[in-house]
Amino acid sequence: MIAECARETEIVEAIGFGRWPDHCPELVAHAASCELCRDVVEVARALHGDREALCRDAQPPAAGMVWWRATIRARSEAARTATQPISVVQGIAGACIVGAAAGLGSVAWQSMRWVDRIGELAIQIELRRAGIAAASTFAATHGLPLLLAVAAGLVLAPLALYFTLADD
Predict the structure, then answer these.
(1) What is the Cα–Cα distance from 3 to 123, expressed in whole angstroms?
(2) How far apart are the two ends of the chain, measured CA to CA in Å?
(3) Containing H/E element for 25?
(4) Nearest alpha-carbon partner for 41 in 23, 59, 16, 61
(5) Is this prediction's pTM over 0.70?
(6) How many angstroms separate the CA atoms of 19 and 7, rounded?
(7) Mean pLDDT calculated for residue range 15-38
(8) Most confident of 25-29, 97-101, 135-139
(9) What DSSP line would sit under 58-103, residue for residue?
(10) What is the band of 68 on the pLDDT scale with cuts at 50, 70, 90?
């Protein structure tokens, strides 16, 4: 059977606010006559006494220390927030490097076929050696005057344009 008393909360409040027993003689008289309120007084006084002892023994940090710790924490969180995009970019860059390495590996693997083609090209050059020799002889005999003519044209054409278009 649960018993209740209407004055129970008043007794708890009086003890909690430090008014017990001096400032509430009628509650003291009631607690002396009510068994339930007597138990409430014992429990509430024990809890209130423990609370007061803990409050006396507590040594909260100085305001400057709290402010300093809050500042350090805010800076740390700001740095962590600032490095998140950098970490994402580093991850993407790492993925790109892995992809590029895989692509280069594939190209290198396929370039092994070019080695075979270079060998075929060497064979074709060997077969057409006589024609290449004739062409190189022609280029050696007539190539220098042709090269000088092209170089002169490349040098003289801008000079001619300059003198033509220049105002006096």
Answers:
(1) 113
(2) 123
(3) helix 25-33
(4) 16
(5) no
(6) 15
(7) 86
(8) 97-101
(9) --PPPHHHHHHHHHHHHHHHHHHHHHHHHHHHHHHHHHHHHHHHHH
(10) very high
